[in-house]
Design goal:
This protein has about 375 residues and is α+β, with helices and mostly antiparallel strands. The chain contains ten helices and nine strands. Helix 3 crosses helix 4, helix 7 runs antiparallel to helix 8 and helix 7 packs parallel to helix 9.
């Protein structure tokens, strides 16, 4: 039965994320955005929470908690409420670890998962997005072609978190260039592999504190053992559903942050002798955005629940992300509108919320639950 009542364990994990987001992430979000860099001590503090390693079995060095997409969605929302760039950075190692956990062969799990459970943030990431105007997950331009006892990878990727410092990158490519989710494979590429080139750091409108770069693969050769899942491959559609749930939940978090800031500002800002929250044009706009945020969260949780129940969640996750993308942009834009001229000033965070929210329509595969 579909239930929206979180368990005590889920509440505990979510409360940990809430405390960290409010007490450590939000106060330093402006600093991180202004300097284009997340403080190392903040990344370490987030890593010490064990949010990535919590669901990795004890046999591989993790805490062995049950993996739940619903719990992951709750964590993603709360971290993004604090700051989107920091949330994405803290969870970047999961882009590598969770697909290995979901689809990896036993040898791959034993070899790679312990790296996601160490004392320092794991230098692991994944490459999904490509620099194309018509980018489509079902028609990746990066290819993997069979060659003897291995594969040859060719193509370009963009928006790869921590690409410059990653020890391993999980690269998604179209097998023999064929279209379709069923023809996408994932390959583990080691740092310094011949033919692998990392670009200069990318600069984006939002999430400026998240270090990303493009990568180019020119005849990069990997062994059969580097293919995620071995001969069986990986379920790319399922992995992207996990990703869409994460990104949709983060969109809810950003929207909620913008909505709450606008609400509080409207209660305090006095114009013509009364708080602007008393003006229906303002009050109704904030209330309607709140309604949309609640609706988006329900879509996210339903998609997450379907994943946890072992059901096909492809459509549910896609719809949740599409709805949340649009909702977050509107909520952030309305927050800027509520603040008027102050909304355009960098001392208030609503302009950052708007810049970050604008990216959700572009983001694919850069977060996962």
């Amino acid at each position: 039965m579909f239930s929206l009542s979180p368990s005590e364990e889920q509440k505990m994990i979510a409360e940990t994320a809430v405390s960290f987001a409010r007490e450590q992430v939000r106060p330093r979000a402006h600093e991180a955005d202004e300097h284009g860099k997340i403080p190392a001590d903040l990344l370490q503090a987030g890593w010490d929470l064990g949010l990535v390693s919590a669901v990795i079995p004890e046999a591989y060095g993790g805490s062995g908690m049950e993996r739940s997409a619903v719990t992951g969605a709750m964590v993603c929302e709360e971290l993004a409420f604090g700051d989107l760039a920091i949330a994405l950075a803290l969870l970047t190692p999961s882009l590598f670890a969770y697909p290995v956990l979901t689809c990896g062969a036993e040898e791959q799990k034993s070899k790679y998962l312990p790296a996601a459970c160490g004392d320092a943030p794991a230098a692991l990431t994944a490459a999904v997005m490509e620099p194309a105007m018509n980018f489509d997950l079902s028609e990746l331009k990066t290819t993997a072609k069979k060659s003897g006892a291995g594969w040859v990878l060719d193509g370009k990727k963009c928006f790869v978190p921590f690409a410059a410092t990653a020890e391993r990158i999980l690269v998604y490519a179209a097998l023999d260039g064929r279209p379709g989710y069923e023809n996408v494979g994932a390959f583990i590429v080691e740092k310094g592999a011949p033919g692998l080139t990392i670009s200069d750091p990318e600069r984006w409108m939002g999430v400026q504190a998240l270090p990303t770069a493009g990568i180019e693969l020119a005849g990069v050769k990997v062994d059969d053992s580097a293919r995620l899942g071995g001969d069986a491959g990986c379920d790319f559609g399922k992995l992207m559903s996990y990703s869409r749930v994460a990104l949709a939940a983060m969109a809810v978090g950003v929207a909620r942050a913008a909505n709450e800031y606008a609400r509080d500002y409207a209660k305090e800002r006095v114009a013509f002798g009364e708080p602007i929250a008393h003006k229906q044009a303002i009050a109704f706009m904030i209330a309607e955005d709140y309604m949309e945020i609640e609706a988006a969260r329900l879509l996210v949780w339903e998609a997450a629940w379907r994943l946890d129940a072992g059901q096909d969640a492809f459509s549910a996750a896609y719809l949740a992300k599409l709805y949340a993308d649009q909702m977050a942009l509107k909520a952030a834009d309305d927050a800027v509108q509520t603040l008027g001229g102050h909304g355009y000033i960098r001392e208030h965070p609503v302009e950052l919320f708007l810049r970050n929210a604008r990216g959700f329509a572009t983001f694919d595969g850069i977060a996962i639950v």
